[in-house]
Design brief:
Radius of gyration: 56 Å
Catalytic activity: Release of a C-terminal dipeptide, oligopeptide-|-Xaa-Yaa, when Xaa is not Pro, and Yaa is neither Asp nor Glu. Thus, conversion of angiotensin I to angiotensin II, with increase in vasoconstrictor activity, but no action on angiotensin II
Strand order of the largest sheet: 1-2
Shape: elongated
Cofactor: Zn(2+)
Number of strands: 18
Pfam families: Peptidase_M2
Mean pLDDT: 89
Helix content: 55-70%
Enzyme class: hydrolase
Strand content: under 5%
GO molecular function: carboxypeptidase activity; metal ion binding; metallopeptidase activity; peptidyl-dipeptidase activity
């Protein structure tokens, strides 16, 4: 109530209470109260009427709420008014009028509800029921769009004569209206009764309250009496109509009980039957009084119809319709909104606004209705002057009767002729009977209906009819009183009373029964007033003002008087009486009696028993087909929209239509249950019922659970459809085509595993919980059908009790063929991917089979093809070359089916299918065929790729379409395959022809066909990869689901059991670890979409049976695999005969139709593949067959290997550390004890390596394709001398090596008994600085005497044992073993080539140095052969010559770049030099030395113990302890060496996270190169100046030459030495050099490659190689040669990264983080990659290259060439012969180098050549 009204009425209430108190008796006060009540009531009524009007003419939630609120305000007002009225002693008032007003004010009905919430709810419920009714639409009518009640359904019921269409419209209206409001109505009844009881005046229920309106205690009895009076007439009419309709529809459609099916009477409720008038018209040749055609012919408008009615009332001197009527009424149905179409007249309570709401149609029926509704308006107009409470009919029936009484005149032929709607007024006996028949179909037919509606409601209100039997009781009344029965069974899920407007609108209906009686009483009275004589049915009061005045007088009374008084005023009677109606119809009564004769006109009061009636069952089945067509089509459309455009909206629509489909199926299931269909004689009908009632999960009773189930499936499908995989390369892939293509084309096992896993992460894993809920709900649904679980329900489709066992048996029969195929494929895949990707159990990892699910393997055909040089039938490339499109591929398939005489695809197919993946939206790409259930719309959804595989898929999917088209005329339950597998088999059987080479030739996709056994095997193998490979997968998916549904597999083992089945049946295993956090079944579309899969297994077998039968029909002979049925109409006819059956017959019948067999038989499949199976048996031995069925593991050979390697790594770290610790202790403290400990550690390490190498042999690592794994195992098994089997020999070898190293380490040169020199630093210093030829000779010889000579025998033993050891590994000798580290078969020739390329530079340097040395020592000290005596080069081994820089420096007056003196002057010590080196590395962004380094390293020679001073870097294999051992002296050379050794430490630090075995350089040379490449920067004057160790100086060419000369003395001078040491050892190891020639071979090589010679005669008593640490220490040396080449490649790359420009020799990468990053990237690899890969990361090159070195030294090369212009280059390859006789008579030298004549002669040749060479150069100049 708005504030103004509330205030006014509150003031009214308070004033009366204050002034007068309770029990007011003053009549004047009562009058004042009534006056104020009328004023306020008008305001309230207008407001409520406006709100109700808005809702009824525009049904929206807003308007509903506004209407409810207005109703509540009106109720509040009424309640307050009643409360105030109760304060008056009104019963004591003598004025009847006032007393009656108070009585009516107090009669507030349900507004008396005390609970305001319930009052609001009552209004809400009523409005909702009206909304349901008004919004109701029926969409299932074939050929019709969605029909509302008005005018669509009303017109259809009135004009259509198709029994089933009428039944469908009748049934569906009740589904869309009454059924939907049953719960609301139950609530409504409760609230109504509570409200009436709250009224407090003694009513027991709402029915009693409504009857009170008629102010008669005998009202119910009076009604019964009236019905009894008219019953004979109704019975005669009923019998006649039934007989007539029986002739129209067939007597078999009418129950034997005498009832008429309710849908045949032309009206939705069988309330009036005038719409069947033309069917029952007594005299068909006579004119009809139905003027509908005339109205339309005269172009009547709705407005004209209302004006015609107005004119009738005006002719009686009644009122004109006010202008507001024409302005405000809704006379036609608007197009833009939903409305309540039920015709109604409205009084807005303000005495001026009156309206009609009607969806008028141009028909006579609506013309009559217009007069009826305008009669209500006339009543309003006439009594508008009455007090508000009297503005109503004398009783409710009066209001209805007024319009109807007008209609009795309006419908007469006389009146219709008067107003020009009937051409002539011919009224003979026959016309009269026709007219009365039409009137009776309206008036008499209605009476029992008008009576029974409120009989039903009153019983409901009383509680005699409970909600559990609402519909049953309804039909009991209708069958009893009307003699009609439902066309189909009704259940208590239905609520048929709600399909009649007045029930949901809470409009009492008995008024209409009353109206239909009294209107004839009124008619008779008005005819008398109009002075009409003659038969009552001919009376027309049109233009009679007398009749009008009489009527007006009655109308103006409203309800101010009891209705008997009003009746008496009108008719002279004070009771309702049927005499007038009987009089009206008396001619028809007599006529009907004559027509009906003595036949019984009664029907059974009980409804017919439909459950055993086959005709009713048939009708119901036909209705089911029509309904199902709409429902399934609608669901298919929604699903299609969703799957072709995945959006939240489309998902919601799909879920909702799915729910609607489930509701429909459940409803049909319950309706079917009303029939005893199992006892039907008709087998086909029985089968239809069986399929209709097998509704699966739709049987779920709980709507919320049903929605949860549907939403769950939709959500899972959505997860699947939207899934995208983000690959590690940054690419995002959907399943189609991205991932499918990747799985098909990639041969990268890691990439395949990544895609495989991530697809499952993005699909299955995300829906696991959903699937659990789905299983529970699915089982609950089917259990309501009597199935144990969903699996049993699914299997029921196959109509075979032992189906599960028969499938297992079928698989076992095919298993041998599968096993042979599996074994062959596994073997070929191992060759492709390496055995590391395969488990030992015999399984194939699932990701390697070319398909996301390993279901079909044809994508790996190319890598498994038996005969690669033979024809292949994959025509993908040909299709692409021929510019095939998706559309063309589909037309190709269409043409195949047309060639068989089958139908071509319809236009709808081409216009509506999705043949390619659309851009811009997400879709479900899984190929599928769609039946839209309207017999014309069939589609395919597919993301087609131009491949042969997709061409085959297209034929498969189009096979489904052909099946759809062939069985489209079957009843809906039979529109399916004979069993689910048949549907899949049809497309596949076509593919068997399409895939043949002969067919591909016919359609020009092959140029020729090679017909030989090898080509046959290729073809069959390809087919087997698709057909045979699939079989176990096709079986196991549903085996898993059946176990899940049965509970055998619980959620706790979903994934484990899934893989048990896959491993057992398929012999495939997961590529990665799986757990119960995963849900791998969900990664397969059919699982989340809840699509049974066993059909595909069945199809794979059945298709070969079909194929063989069709081939025979086509007259094909020869091998089954070569048959192509293309163009065979006979094969097509045979196929159609089976397809057209749909599922109307059990599948054995369908199978027999096409094959002559009645069971699934694999013999045709076996026959097809027999040539292949025979071939496979020859390729596979028995040991290769099968797999461990009970051992399912993702752990591959490679995984086991990796696990072993992880364990190895832990153990190796400990073992290597132990050995290194022992080596360190020994080399930093040479004692017998440390030597013994070292030997012990060596033996232990050797045992460890041998043990691990043996363990590694359990792995087939040599067949690993994984480079890292193979490399790792190679390194582990490549254990060198540790391979010795005999422990004693291992000890012996270790002792030998220790002895040699001990000899070396303890070596001293004693120039006198008092002066013995250690190698470092004493001998080093002497050789570096002394220029005394004799002293140098003595030291040179003394060192060799104290080292090499003493270990000669040791070395012989070492060679023997070392070779023996490596031969255990398969190497010929130790040299081959050492070279294996370089992973190149051409290594020896490669390094030889490098040396040759560098020889010119070395030779020029050699020539220049020799000249300068000769100037110091004299020519006589140099042999004529051109060699340089080895002891003069400033180094014990003449390996680097930088110590003679001061002698050979090109420009002596230039700044010295030897910073030794500076270091000493600045007080540098060893630690400072090491910190300087550290700072260089950290400036590059590399790591500082760990504290352990500083704590544990030996960086100076210790006092008091023997050590090995040779500088070396140490990795202790615990990722934290790194050391350098060095006897540092403060010199530039040591500073460079420190940088070099710290380079090793950086390498250690960078690769410390690699496995132990890969903690090494990419090859041995890399490790040496890393420190050296740093030295190239450190050595530059530029760098030395940066760090303050070199003063600023001129940067000119001479300084450059000096610097390059210094570098060349170190780098270039070293090259041949670095090369030859291992050349010598390799020749020793190989046996080419025997122990008798050790020293000779050594000097042969040195003389040949280095051009140096011994200063003294050497014999085989000597062992000069042993004077070099690396020989004594068993340390391969070629690494240094390699290092000296590649360091310049590294240097150039790092300089480029550091953005250095200018000459390469001036580059300093100090402080360049970019250079450091590039270096770090390579160092971190360790030896995990081959050295070319590591080289490529650093330099972009994959091979060793001398060009950067030559570029570096280019200025020096040019200078040397010029400097040596006149010099004699080179030397003889042979060493000079050294004579023992002294050449110096003074004996000032220990031995004089002399040469033999022969030697001089050879040198002479060289000399002559040199002279000639110089002359040539001069001439050229």
């Amino acid at each position: 109530m708005d504030s103004k009204i509330r205030l006014l009425f509150s003031v009214l209430c308070i004033s009366f209470v204050i002034i007068f108190g309770q029990n007011i008796t003053d009549i004047e006060n009562a009058k004042d109260f009534l006056e104020e009540y009328n004023r306020q009531a008008e305001i309230i009524l207008v407001k409520a009427s406006e709100a109700a009007w808005k809702y009824n003419t525009n049904i929206t939630d807003h308007n509903l709420n506004m209407s409810v609120q207005a109703d509540l305000q009106e109720a509040e007002f009424a309640k307050q008014a009643a409360l105030n009225a109760s304060r008056f002693a009104w019963r004591n008032f003598t004025d009847d009028n006032i007393r009656r007003q108070f009585q009516k004010i107090l009669d507030i009905g349900t507004d008396a509800l005390k609970n305001k919430t319930k009052l609001a709810r009552l209004s809400q419920v009523t409005a909702e029921m009206k909304g349901i009714y008004s919004k109701g639409q029926v969409c299932e009518i074939p050929g019709e769009s969605c029909l509302e009640l008005e005018p669509g359904l009303t017109r259809l019921l009135s004009t259509n004569r198709d029994y089933n269409i009428l039944a469908l419209a009748w049934k569906k209206w009740r589904d869309e209206s009454g059924r939907k409001m049953k719960k609301l109505y139950t609530e409504f009844v409760s609230l109504m009764n509570e409200g009436i009881r709250d009224l407090g005046i003694g009513f027991r229920d709402a029915g009693e309250y409504y009857r009170s309106w008629y102010e008669s205690k005998d009202f119910e009895k009076d009604l019964q009496d009236l019905l009894e009076q008219v019953k004979p007439l109704y019975n005669q009419l009923h019998y006649y109509v039934r007989k007539k309709l029986g002739k129209v529809y067939g007597s078999n459609k009418f129950p034997s009980t005498g009832h008429i099916p309710a849908h045949l009477l032309g009206n939705m409720w069988s309330q009036t039957w005038n719409n069947v008038y033309e069917l029952v018209k007594p005299y068909k040749s006579n004119i009809s009084v139905d003027v509908t055609p005339t109205l339309k012919a005269k172009n009547y408008t709705v407005n004209q119809m209302f004006k015609t009615a107005e004119d009738f009332f005006l002719s009686l001197n009644l009122s004109r319709m006010p202008d507001s009527f024409w302005k405000n009424s809704m006379l036609e149905k608007p197009d833009d909104r939903q409305v309540v179409c039920h015709a109604s007249a409205w009084d807005f309570g303000n005495q001026r606004d009156f309206r009609i709401k009607m969806c008028t149609d141009i028909t006579m029926e609506d013309l009559i209705t217009v007069h009826h509704e305008m009669g209500h308006i006339q009543y309003y107009l006439q009594y508008k002057g009455q007090p508000e409470v009297f503005r109503g009919g004398a009783n409710p029936g009066f209001h209805e009767a007024i319009g109807d009484v007008m209609a009795l005149s309006v419908s007469t032929p006389t009146h219709l002729h008067k107003i020009g709607l009937l051409e002539q007024e011919v009224f003979d006996n026959e016309t009269e009977i026709n007219y009365l028949m039409n009137q009776a179909l309206d008036k008499i037919a209605f009476l029992p209906f008008g009576y029974l509606i409120d009989q039903w409601r009153w019983s409901v209100y009383k509680g005699n009819i409970t909600p559990n039997n609402y519909t049953k009781s309804w039909w009991e009344l209708r069958c009893k009183y009307q003699g009609i029965s439902p066309p189909v069974p009704r259940t208590e899920d239905d609520f048929d009373p709600g399909s009649k407007y007045h029930v949901p609108a809470n409009t009492p209906y008995i008024r209409y029964f009353v109206s239909f009686i009294i209107q004839f009483q009124f008619h008779k009275a008005l005819c008398q007033a109009a002075n009409f004589t003659g038969p009552l049915h001919l009376c027309d009061i049109y233009n009679s003002t007398q009749a009008g005045n009489k009527l007006k007088e009655v109308l103006q009374m409203g309800s101010s008087k009891p209705w008997p008084e009003v009746m008496r005023k009108m008719t002279g009677q004070d009771k309702m009486n049927a005499s007038a109606i009987i009089e009206y119809f008396s001619p028809l009564i007599q006529w009907l009696k004559n027509q009906n004769g003595n036949n019984g006109t009664q029907w059974s009061e009980e409804c017919p028993k439909m459950e055993n009636d086959p005709e009713v069952a048939r009708t119901w089945l036909d209705l089911y087909d029509m309904e199902a067509t709409y429902v399934f089509q609608r669901q298919a459309e929604a699903d299609w929209s969703y799957e072709t455009n995945i959006t939240d909206y489309n998902q919601a629509v799909s879920v909702n239509t799915s729910l609607e489909g489930s509701r429909f199926q459940k409803k049909m299931y319950k309706e079917a249950a009303t029939f005893n269909w199992k006892n039907l004689m008709d087998v086909s009908m029985r089968r239809r019922f069986e399929k209709i009632t097998n509704i699966g999960t739709s049987a779920l009773e709980d709507e919320d659970q049903l929605k949860a189930l549907s939403t769950g499936v939709s959500n899972m499908t959505s997860i699947y459809g939207k899934a995208k995989v983000r690959m590690s390369n940054g690419e995002t892939l959907e399943l189609e085509p991205g991932l499918t293509r990747l799985m098909s084309d990639s041969r990268n096992a890691s990439q395949l595993a990544e895609a495989w896993k991530k697809w499952r992460d993005e699909t299955g894993a995300k829906m696991r919980q959903m699937y659990e809920k789905f299983v529970t709900l699915s089982n609950k649904g089917v259990q309501q059908l009597g199935y144990k679980d969903t699996g049993e329900y699914w299997r029921s489709s196959y109509e075979q009790g032992d189906f599960e066992e028969s499938m297992e048996k079928a698989y076992n029969g095919l298993k041998p063929l599968y096993q042979y195929l599996h074994a062959y494929v596994r073997k070929r895949l191992i060759q492709e991917y390496g055995s590391e990707h395969f488990p030992r159990t015999g399984h194939i990892p699932a990701h390697l089979l070319g398909n996301m699910w390993a279901q079909e393997w044809n994508n790996i055909y190319k890598i498994t093809i038996p005969f690669k040089n033979k024809q292949t039938v994959d025509v993908t490339e040909t299709m692409k070359k021929q510019n095939f499109t998706a559309n063309r591929m589909f037309h190709e398939a269409d043409e195949f089916y047309i060639s068989l005489g089958l139908e071509k695809m319809r236009d709808e197919f081409w216009n509506k299918s999705m043949l390619e993946k659309p851009e811009g939206r997400e879709v479900v790409c899984h190929a599928s065929a769609w039946d839209f259930y309207n017999r014309k719309d069939f589609r395919i959804k597919m993301c087609t790729d131009i491949t042969m595989e997709d061409l085959t898929t297209i034929h498969h999917e189009m096979g489904h379409i052909q099946y759809f088209m062939e069985y489209r005329n079957q009843p809906m339950p039979f529109r399916d395959g004979a069993n689910p597998g048949f549907h899949e088999a049809i497309g596949d059987v076509m593919a068997l022809s399409v895939a043949t080479p002969s067919h591909l030739l016919k359609i020009r996709l092959l140029d020729k066909v090679t017909d030989d056994l090898d080509s046959d095997i290729n073809f069959l193998f390809n087919m087997a990869l698709e057909k045979i490979a699939f079989l176990p997968f096709g079986l196991l998916i549903d085996k898993w689901r059946w176990d899940v549904f049965s509970g055998k597999t619980t959620p706790a083992s979903y994934n484990a059991d899934w893989w048990k089945l896959r491993c057992k049946y398929q012999g495939v295993s997961p590529p990665v670890s799986r757990s119960e956090a995963d849900f791998d079944p969900g990664a397969k579309f059919h699982v989340p979409s809840n699509y049974p899969y066993i059909r595909y297994f069945v199809a794979r077998i059945a298709q070969f049976q079909f194929h063989k039968a069709l081939c025979q029909a086509a007259g094909q002979t020869g091998p089954l695999h070569k048959c192509d049925i293309y163009n065979s109409k006979e094969a097509g006819r045979l196929l159609r005969s089976m397809l057209s059956l749909g599922s109307s017959k059990p599948w054995p019948d369908a199978m027999e139709k096409i094959t002559g067999q009645r069971n699934l038989d694999a013999s045709a499949l076996v026959e097809y593949f027999k040539p292949l199976q025979d071939w496979l048996k020859k390729q596979i031995n028995e040991t290769e067959l099968g797999w461990e069925e009970g051992n399912c593991t993702h752990v591959t050979h490679g995984d086991e290997a990796r696990a072993w390697l992880r364990q190895y790594d832990q153990e190796a770290g400990v073992a290597f550390n132990k050995q290194v610790e022992a080596d360190w202790r020994y080399s930093t403290n040479i004692t017998d004890e440390t030597q013994n400990n070292r030997t012990k550690a060596d033996i232990e390490q050797s045992a460890f390596q041998k043990k691990k190498a043996n363990e590694a042999q359990q792995f087939d690592w040599k067949n690993f394709k994984d480079e890292y794994l193979r490399r790792t195992f190679f390194l582990i098994t490549n254990i060198g001398v540790s391979a010795l089997k005999d422990v004693n020999q291992i000890k012996e070898l270790s002792d030998v090596k220790s002895n040699m190293e001990s000899i070396y380490g303890k070596g001293r040169v004693c120039l006198s008994s008092a002066k013995c020199l250690s190698l470092e630093p004493d001998v080093y210093d002497l050789l570096a600085h002394s220029r005394n030829y004799t002293t140098l000779s003595l030291v040179w010889k003394g060192w060799r005497d104290q080292t090499g000579k003493k270990m000669r025998e040791n070395y012989k033993q070492y060679v023997k044992l070392s070779n023996q050891a490596v031969r255990e590994l398969g190497y010929q000798d130790t040299g081959e073993y050492w070279r294996s580290s370089y992973e190149s078969e051409t290594f020896q020739t490669d390094i030889e080539r490098l040396l040759q390329q560098l020889q010119p530079l070395y030779q020029n340097l050699h020539t220049y140095v020799r000249r300068e040395l000769m100037a110091i020592y004299g020519n006589d000290k140099f042999p004529a052969s051109g060699h340089i005596p080895a002891h003069l080069l400033g180094n014990m081994w003449a390996q680097s010559w930088n110590n003679i820089y001061d002698i050979v420096v090109p420009f002596k007056n230039k700044q010295s770049i030897d910073i030794t003196a500076t270091l000493q002057e600045k007080g540098f010590n060893a630690r400072m030099m090491f910190r300087t080196a550290e700072e260089f590395f950290t400036s590059l962004g590399l790591e500082p030395m760990p504290q352990n380094f500083w704590d544990n390293s030996m960086i100076v020679r210790p006092e008091g113990r023997e050590v090995v001073c040779h500088a070396s870097a140490w990795d202790f294999y615990n990722a934290r302890d790194y050391r350098i051992r060095m006897c540092t002296v403060v010199s530039m050379e040591s500073l460079i060496v420190i940088h070099h050794e710290m380079g090793h430490i950086q390498y250690f630090l960078q690769y410390r996270n690699q496995s132990v075995v890969h903690r090494g350089g990419a090859n041995p040379g890399f490790h040496e190169a890393v420190g050296d490449v740093i030295s190239l920067s450190v050595s530059t004057p530029k760098h030395l100046r940066k760090i303050g160790l070199l003063d600023e100086g001129p940067d000119d060419e001479e300084n450059d030459i000096n610097f390059l000369m210094k570098m060349a003395l170190e780098k270039i001078a070293f090259l041949p030495f670095g090369y030859l040491i291992d050349q010598w050892r390799w020749s020793v190891f190989s046996g080419e050099t025997s122990d008798k020639d050790y020293n000779k071979k050594w000097w042969d090589l040195r003389c040949k490659y280095q051009g140096v010679s011994p200063p003294l005669k050497r014999t085989e008593e000597d062992f000069d190689p042993g004077a070099k640490y690396h020989v004594a220490a068993d340390y391969p040396y070629i690494r240094y040669f390699v290092s000296y080449v590649i360091q310049f490649q590294f240097h150039k790359a790092l300089c480029k990264a550091a953005n250095q420009t200018g000459p390469l020799h001036k580059c300093d990468i100090y402080r360049s983080r970019k250079a450091g990053k590039l270096l770090s990237d390579m160092l971190k690899l360790g030896s995990s990659k081959s050295w070319p890969e590591a080289m490529e990361i650093m330099t972009g090159q994959r091979s060793m290259d001398v060009q950067p070195l030559l570029e570096y030294f280019d200025p020096l090369i040019k200078w040397l060439k010029q400097e040596n212009y006149r010099e004699r280059p080179g030397w003889t390859e042979a060493c000079p012969v050294i004579d023992d006789s002294p050449c110096d008579p003074d004996q000032t030298q220990p031995k004089k180098i002399c040469t033999t004549n022969g030697s001089r002669s050879r040198y002479k040749d060289v000399y002559h050549f040199s002279v000639i060479f110089v002359i040539v150069l001069l001439v050229m100049a």
